[in-house]
Structure formats: C-alpha cells, structure tokens
Design goal:
Elongation Factor Tu (Ef-tu), domain 3, Rossmann fold, six-stranded antiparallel beta barrel, alpha+beta, 290 residues, six-stranded mixed β-sheet, 10 helices, globular
Length: 290
C-alpha cells in the first residue's frame, strides 16, 4: 500500500523517550482532520478510540530544534477521530479542534499543524485519557452532538459508528443545530446512520426523549452547560440514569496529560474536583451531575 511505503520511508516510530514520531499522510482537510501514520498497537480497542487524545508538539522536529526552539512551548491536544490498521503501521485521523471549530483561528500551534505537508513529521505524546466505553452487549447506540457550540463536534463521536455497525448494531444521531444540516455534512455520514436534527429546545427534547427509550447507551459531545438538560431528559424517559448508560466528552484544557498542572480540573457535584486529562475527558454523566 502507498501509505505503508510512505511510513517506512519516513520512519514512523516510537522514540526512546516514549514519544511518537508520526508521519503526516495527508494535510489538514476542510473538516479539521489531519491524517498521520503511527506504529501499530498503540490503541487497543476500536470502540474505545473515540474520546482519547494525543498531545502534539507544534514546532520543528529535528533534534537541534527540539532542544532549542521554545517559541511554541505548549503541546496541543488532538482527538483521535478514527484509525485504519496495517501490519506495522496505523493511520490515525486526528481532529484539530482549534481549526475545525474556527477556520480563522490564529492559534500559532494549530496554524503550524495546518501547514504540515504530507511526509513531514510531528512529535506526539499518547494516546492519553479515557474514551467512550461501549458495552459488549450494546446494539443500539445513540450519539448526541450540539453543533451550535465548539464543544459539540460531531467528529469526536464518529469513531463509534463503524465498529457498532460492524457488530450488527444500530446507530442513531441526534443533532442540535441553529440551521439546517448542510448537504456536505450529510454526505460524510454512512447511509445506514439514522439522523435526527433539531433546531429548537422543544424539538431537541422530543427527539432525544424518543431515542433514549430504546437506546442501550448514549454518547454525547455537548457544552457543559447542557449536561443537566441531557440528564433530565434521560430521567424523564427512563426514570433512572443507569451507570454507564450516558457518557459525555468534557471540553477542558488538556495541557500536560498526566494531571500535574491542574489546568483541566472539572468540578464534582458534591464538592471536590477531578482531572479531565487522566480521568476523562470522557465521563459517566452521573459522575458530573448529582
């Protein structure tokens, strides 16, 4: 395969310090996805890929530059939006949030990533964090995204679709948007995916309520201000929010990846805090809503 030969020539590898030398397979696309080649075996379960992330060093990759260039000193989090596996390499689709949310973003790190040509390298740490946990017996999966907010990226949830369909399951997508879904967006979705779009709050509650009645699990990408409303809809239609039924991806500042800097702390309903970079960024909704 062409991708395999490119990876071999560019030497995608795990380095002695534990970081990953990833090779750009295709430049950033219009959906904010960057395709890179990495060594195989770093991700265990396809269903648990969604919600996990890597930290990218957004600066030149030579040894000299890595030791001297501190112009872009913070790593940027990139969510893993899917993968394809070969014998020795994997192709990861990495979501670049700073540009998929705002194509005009002037963040220097994400701007640097957007300029990476095919064949260039990026230093990554990871994979990190906990992703969505899908039960082996689940066959009816509901995905919820709020496209009105940067925290509601649909691409964070899409890695869950293909594996669920492959096991003979059913996937329903509930989208809240302030405008009709574009044809370009719909064309990227599998034909067998059932899609419901809502504009108003009442429409969203109605469609979501009908969906959660039969769903085995629900995975959501929403702003934190919507978590309580999601919890209430599930309670209204299922009477109880079972542990593991509803999982949400929390939008947080993922900087160090090991919980040391505390930039990613998330408040808990009974007091205290938890760290999204190590205990999340995907959480059971019951943990966040008392």
């Amino acid at each position: 395969m062409a991708q395999q030969s490119t990876a071999s020539e560019s030497k995608a590898a795990t380095l002695a310090d534990g970081s990953i030398c990833a090779v750009v397979a295709a430049p950033l696309d219009e959906w904010g996805r960057l395709r890179v080649l990495a060594p195989a075996g770093l991700l265990d379960d396809r269903l648990e890929t969604a919600g996990r992330y890597v930290l990218a060093r957004c600066a030149a990759e030579s040894g000299v530059h890595r030791g001297e260039d501190w112009g872009i000193y913070l790593r940027r989090p990139l969510f893993i939006g899917g993968r394809m596996t070969w014998t020795e390499e994997e192709e990861w689709s990495l979501i670049v949030p700073g540009l998929s949310d705002d194509p005009g973003s002037d963040d220097p790190g994400y701007t640097w990533l957007a300029s990476r040509p095919a064949g260039s390298t990026i230093n990554l740490l990871g994979p990190l964090g906990n992703g969505f946990q899908i039960h082996a017996q689940s066959r009816n999966l509901a995905l919820v995204a709020d496209l009105r907010h940067p925290e509601g990226q649909l691409s964070w949830l899409m890695p869950l679709v293909e594996p669920m369909l492959a096991r003979g399951g059913r996937v329903t997508l509930v989208i809240q948007s302030d405008k009709p879904l574009s044809t370009a967006l719909l064309d990227t979705l599998p034909l067998v995916l059932e899609v419901h779009a809502a504009v108003t709050e009442d429409e969203w509650r109605k469609v979501l309520g009908e969906t959660v009645r039969w769903a085995d699990q629900l995975c959501a990408a929403l702003p934190a201000t919507r978590f309580a409303a999601l919890h209430q809809v599930v309670r209204d239609h299922r009477f109880h929010v079972d542990a593991g039924f509803c999982q949400v991806l929390v939008h947080a500042d993922l900087l160090c990846g090991v919980g040391a800097c505390l930039a990613c702390v998330v408040p808990l309903p009974r007091g205290g805090w938890t760290r999204a970079c190590v205990h999340g960024p995907v959480f059971d909704l019951n943990v966040l809503i008392g």
